[in-house]
Predict the structure.
Amino acid sequence: MVATRLDDALLAEYAERRFGYGSYDAPVWFVGMEEGGGGSLNEVRLRLETWAKLVSQPLDDLRDYHLALEFPKVICHFTEPISLQRTWAGLMRVLAGLRHETPTNGHLRQYQADQLGRHGAETCLLELLPLPSPGATVWHYDTWSGLPQLESRRAYEAYYAPRRVGALRQLIALHRPALVCFYGLTHATWWRQIAGVELREVALPPNKGGFVGQDGDIVYLLLQHPVAFGVTNSYFSSAGAHVSELVRQRIADDAGDEAHVAGAGPATDVATVQPWVVRQAAPSRGTARRAATDVARAGGRVATRVRAGVARLQKGIRMSLPMQGQHRPRPNEAGVGSQPDWHTFYSVAGDGMVDSFVARYPSLRPLLAHAPAAIDRYFGPHAGLRLEVFADPDAEGAEHLYLFVRTDAPFEEAYERQRRLDEEWWLDAMLEARGMMTVGIELA
């Protein structure tokens, strides 16, 4: 008998955990709206099953995952004769523009097959929405799944997009890539929420707009989608060159005097890195890793982390489905100088996992006791706070605590409140959390 539905448990896990391809430590991140494909039930089922076989990682290796799918239409992007994928080609031209270079199609094919979105390499390919889809006007998951958040495309976007905006913001804050490049101007509202900084318009040939912003050592770039009508190869290479000049100027302004005092030579520019390697001289993983490090340094980025143990965090941010049942009532705030029992503020999931986790990391107790008052300042009345511990299946013994703020505010308002919470309280409080806890929101 032919199955006509997807495994909802696997589908839900995939949608909650998977973000794309590459490595979070990569200096260059590309963020799109959603992955293509998903045109048939069997294709999506195979994608889910392949992901599960590859240890269900938040980030897959682009080449390894697609070769494991064994679809002729995707294998051709990684085996001879290599076919250029249009979206990836545009993104690779941004990388080429960082060096003020125009690669041949042969160079692009080489890079696509061997380096783009690989584990341990220099690029991370992420998606705002988790499920593959052939287009914004096509929706099959309502007939393939019984999950309520997939009953329509509108419900799907309303459920997952705000959650993943918050997750991407936290991932950027933790890993601080040198460049985050969003593509698809149609979705600029989401990209601006993720960036959290002003993105100003810049002119890129041929008369196509783009947007750029900076947050300390991170450059944000917002571009047309590579398959949008009228965009050319020069548009993407010009965008890369524009970022390179921004970085060059920042290094000149901020680091020149320091380099002279230290007796160092001139600062390295992003444009000095050569990513285009012919096939017969394909780099080893160590070479690719050094190239990634060079790009990060050339971007003028100082790799500051919340703490050395941040590497123990999960490789992805999990968004939990809303809890069933009632939340515990919250008592009045404790007086100044006191430390109330943190249990009274939260509903707790996981059969003692939270208590066990906090017992292992007792420094979290005062943070959990006083976090509700800080959250109240930004969210006002809300539907409760929830704690849950998630274990990383890719690293034995690695666990992470999540504090979810449940709110019935419209999602744009909710994420504006979260943005203010992050910027004015949480980014400092993370030091107290010592990399062991993340704050997110759930829409009621």
In short: The two ends are 39 Å apart (CA to CA).
